[in-house]
Design goal:
The complex is a heterotrimer of chains A (167), B (163) and C (424). With 167 residues, chain A is α/β, with parallel strands linked by helices. Chain A has three helices and seven strands, in the order αββαββββαβ. Chain A has one domain: NADH:ubiquinone oxidoreductase Nqo5 subunit (Beta Polymerase, domain 2, 2-Layer Sandwich), CATH 3.30.460. In chain A, a hairpin with a 2-residue loop joins β1 and β2. The N and C termini of chain A lie far apart (68 Å). Chain B is globular, with a radius of gyration of 18 Å. Chain B has 163 residues and is of the alpha/beta class. In chain B, strands 1-2-3-4 form a four-stranded parallel β-sheet. Chain B has six helices and four strands. Classes of the chains: A alpha/beta (167), B alpha/beta (163), C mainly alpha (424).
């Protein structure tokens, strides 16, 4: 099935509905990336899923990037895939300073665990998430490992070894 | 071969109880495979028709710790999993032995990072370390033979007071 | 004295760490049978279990023998892959990608190197592309053999596991001949592959793909008309087309629900557009359909390998780009330029342009994707692995509700997760 969508069509459709949302676009090695304003991210993603022509049915991946030295330290990355049009899109937006971000698990059910993993690794809290717990690390662990100020080997005493009972 | 030569002409053989018990223990080491990651696949490959582990009496892989003799820890042990491994080790009845299979269990392996325990001998008493990532099945069979040599030298009263 | 039998037993939390999981389990479960019984039991299918494909912990809330709620817990094999990637160069990370999906090791290598080459913009020679396709398809057969064997073993047919392991040993001997290691190969390099396949290797591959359909047919004769197997797997864990797409399924799980989507056909990479193969799709959406998809895919892979062997021409196997690709060993020892390039590439890494890419490919388990952010240095600023087993396991609580405890094992086998990949 050939791609009926091109980058320009997608851009025009989004600009019609949300004239002020897109800050900039980028094309790199065949990928199309949209940089979006944080306040309108939830409505924009909802529109991307529900529009009958664009129809992005699956959120392939949700992650976050830690730019250690920029003014806005974290940015969220959404990879979207449309089965109907065989088209991939990436949407990036900054996370504001309070580290609270709207959740998209009401739009795509598959985003539930992906956002839990972002919370576990980076510490970004998602509002209205049904079940925000840690994914990979034990519950008593207090730090967020993938941030740039956490060392690779960890700090001594972060994790507990099992207690040995002599018989 | 062994026994018939001794019995030819006579009706009894002389030995010590320790040797008989050690011979029985070493020839039927029932492993408990603590298969966590990639080394577990090589442990499964040791049981398949090409590298046969049942020649050494160790084919009965019991997944319940109460019925096993030797625990083969195969795979990377993280801090979260370490509590589980120790609990299962405590449930095994003695005499019990531990084989640390692969580089990840011996010293942390290629994962020098925050969640990986750098060597399981920080919380378990290990008898045999097997090198390799993952060790070839021949290497694991060599480890079982070395463990059999170690078991042959034990005496029955070594395990008298342990549960 | 009050009658204490009618009180609902409360769980005493010995471990404060476990409190959050039990709370999530309370929220998730619903009673679906008409007469609401008051005694439900929480069963822990712990991380050490013979039938949960690795270290997966399941907390099941049971009403008699039926499951009313399920919360999986991952993280027992979390090794810190993404943090490791930020501290080592692109070359040094290739052995780590082996251990992601440790049943199909060559496929992970190929997909990681393809992602880095997309980022850096390197073209590779034709023979390297054909060789990569051959080893990726061989590892697809190896992974599906374990998927078939363990699902049959979980349901009760132990013979099938030993037969499929015997076939897998032949594939591992082929890998031993081609690249030197039978299990964790690190065969591909950025710019091509490490070494060429000689005539003996090609003869071994031809012999394997000629004999494989006969052995697969032997396994089918034993299992596919067996009433016990069909009763245990048919109609279990139905998932519809829209649910499968929304929850994040990819790979054979998606094709078992009627969606004809295969990344080798829709977004082709390497030379998949030049070979001719079918994409097996079944519309029933239950555990048996997912099993049949895997069996049919192994035969399609044999077809692909046969066509690759016919179309492959002799040539070079590594690209000729001095600033990004490691030079040949003979030249390093004798010439000056190559020595300097080797030193710079090994110590400081290859420097791709600044930017970020996402590249997704068809792993035997689903869509394996790499999201790489590069700031122009020798090591990536961020590397995220989109693992198919992680997203496939997300559907498990939904699929298990309403079934018996013994069906849980068959359902996990039909999803075919690998914990090394799901926990990263």
């Amino acid at each position: 099935m050939e791609t009926k969508l091109t980058n320009q069509i997608v851009l025009n459709k989004i600009k019609q509905k949300f004239p002020s949302a897109i800050l900039s676009t980028e094309e790199f090695q065949g990928d199309f990336i949209l940089y979006v304003d944080t306040n309108q991210i939830h409505e924009l993603l909802k529109f991307l899923k529900e529009d009958s022509e664009l129809c992005f049915e699956q959120s392939t991946d949700i992650t976050a990037v830690d730019w250690a030295t920029r003014k806005n330290r974290f940015s969220m990355v959404y990879q979207l895939l449309s089965y109907k049009n065989n088209y991939r899109l990436r949407v990036m937006c900054y996370v504001d300073g309070s580290l609270h971000h709207p959740t998209v698990s009401d739009i795509w059910p598959g985003a539930n665990w992906q956002e839990r993993e972002v919370y576990d690794m980076y510490g970004i809290i998602f509002d209205n998430h049904p079940d925000l717990r840690r994914m990979y690390l034990p519950e008593y662990f207090e730090k967020y490992p993938l941030r740039k100020d956490y060392p690779l080997m960890g700090n001594p005493g972060d994790f507990k070894l099992p207690t040995i009972i002599e018989d | 071969m062994g026994l018939e030569a001794l019995l030819r002409g006579e009706d009894f053989i002389t030995t010590t109880i320790d040797e008989v018990i050690a011979w029985a223990r070493k020839s039927s080491l029932w492993p408990m495979p603590m298969g966590i990651s990639c080394c577990a696949i090589e442990f499964i490959a040791v049981n398949d028709p090409k590298y046969d582990l049942s020649r050494f009496g160790a084919e009965v892989a019991r997944f319940s710790p109460r019925q096993a003799d030797v625990m083969i820890v195969a795979g990377t042990v993280t801090y979260k999993m370490a509590h589980v491994v120790r609990r299962i080790y405590d449930q095994m009845p003695s005499p019990k032995w531990v084989i640390a299979m692969g580089a990840c269990t011996s010293s942390g392996g290629m994962y020098r990072s925050y969640p990986v325990v750098q060597g399981i001998d920080q919380f378990l008493p290990v008898d045999i370390y097997v090198a390799g990532c993952p060790p070839r099945p021949d290497n694991l069979i060599n480890a079982i033979i070395e463990l059999q040599k170690k078991v042959e030298k034990t005496r029955a009263r070594d395990f008298q007071d342990k549960i | 004295m009050e009658n204490k039998i009618n009180e609902v037993p409360r769980i005493n939390f010995v471990d404060p760490e476990e409190a959050a999981i039990y709370k999530a389990l309370q929220k998730q479960s619903e009673i679906i049978i008409e007469d609401k019984l008051e005694n439900t039991m929480v069963l822990n299918m712990g991380p050490q279990h013979p039938a949960t494909h690795g270290v997966l912990r399941l907390l099941l809330k049971l009403d008699g023998e039926r499951v009313v709620g399920c919360v999986p817990e991952l993280g027992y094999l979390h090794r810190g892959y993404e943090k490791l990637a930020e501290n080592m160069t692109y070359y040094e990370y290739i052995p780590h990608t082996d251990r992601l999906d440790y049943l199909a090791t060559m496929a992970n290598n190929v997909h990681y190197v393809l992602a880095v080459e997309k980022l850096a913009g390197i073209d590779i020679p034709d023979r390297a592309k054909w060789i990569r396709m051959i080893v990726a398809e061989l590892s697809r057969i190896a992974s599906h053999l374990i998927g078939i064997g363990t699902m049959a073993m979980d349901v009760g047919a132990l013979t099938i596991l030993l037969w499929s392991l015997r076939e897998r040993e032949k594939i591992q001997s082929i890998f031993d001949k081609v690249c030197g290691a039978r299990f964790t190969t690190s065969y591909t390099r950025i710019g091509g592959v490490a070494s060429d396949i000689d005539d003996e290797g090609i003869a071994m591959i031809k012999k394997f793909i000629d004999e494989f359909p006969f052995y697969l047919h032997e396994m089918e004769k034993l299992l596919h008309t067996n009433k016990i197997f069909l009763d245990r797997c048919e109609g279990i864990a139905y998932i519809s087309k829209e649910d499968a797409i929304a929850i994040g399924f990819t790979g054979p799980n998606l094709r078992g629900s009627g969606v004809e989507w295969d990344l080798r056909v829709k977004q082709p990479y390497l030379f998949y557009d030049k070979v001719d193969f079918k994409v097996p799709t079944y519309t029933e959406g239950d555990a048996l359909a997912r099993y049949y998809v895997r069996v049919d895919e192994t035969l399609e892979s044999c077809k692909i390998i046969r066509q690759c062997l016919e179309k492959m021409q002799p040539g070079s196997i590594i690209a000729n780009e001095p600033k990004k690709v490691l030079p040949k060993k003979e030249e390093i020892y004798t010439r000056m330029e190559e020595l300097i390039h080797d030193f710079m590439l090994v110590n400081f890494g290859m420097n791709p342009p600044k930017g970020n890419i996402y590249a997704g490919f068809e792993n035997p388990k689903g869509e394996l994707g790499f999201y790489i952010v590069s700031q122009g240095k020798g090591y990536p600023w961020k590397l995220k692995i989109r693992s198919p087993s992680f997203n496939n396991l997300q559907a498990l609580p939904m699929l298990v509700k309403g079934h018996l405890v013994s069906d849980v094992v068959a359902i996990i086998g039909s999803i075919d997760p690998v914990m090394g990949e799901a926990d990263k």
